């Protein structure tokens, strides 16, 4: 099994009236429940929409500097994501399609790199 990230940028959502948003709750939650029942669900959630509510941590100078707001100014930013644990790309894209239908906007799928093995031996 491999873990996959299904995600969207906030700008892919588009502008919709309040009554449209109300129609997305049930189908979105139904997909999450279907993932849980299938045993592939790891985590899903939407992020706060205002990037000014973000914080950044930067340790490239040798010490950690925490600042308000996003690390870089950008026109697109992450809106939300789902992590699933499935056997292959085909299954991951099938779930991404279900998430796209449930939410009502496009999704991107990427596989996580394998976690490196810790070094062994004495030193």
From TrEMBL:
Residues 27-97 form the YCII-related domain. Signal peptide: none annotated. Pfam families: YCII (PF03795). Belongs to the YciI family. PANTHER family: BLL7171 PROTEIN, BLL7171 PROTEIN-RELATED. This is YCII-related domain-containing protein. It comes from Microlunatus soli.
């Amino acid at each position: 099994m491999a873990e996959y990230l299904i995600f969207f940028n906030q700008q892919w959502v588009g502008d919709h009236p309040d009554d449209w948003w109300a129609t997305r709750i049930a189908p979105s939650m139904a997909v999450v429940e279907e993932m849980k029942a299938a045993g592939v669900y790891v985590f899903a959630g939407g992020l706060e929409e205002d990037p000014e509510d973000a914080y950044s941590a930067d340790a490239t100078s040798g010490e950690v500097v925490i600042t308000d707001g996003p690390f870089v100014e950008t026109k697109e930013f992450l809106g939300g994501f789902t992590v699933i644990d499935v056997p292959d790309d085909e299954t991951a894209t099938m779930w991404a399609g279900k998430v796209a239908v449930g939410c009502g906007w496009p999704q991107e799928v990427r596989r996580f790199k394998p976690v490196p093995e810790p070094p062994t031996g004495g030193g």
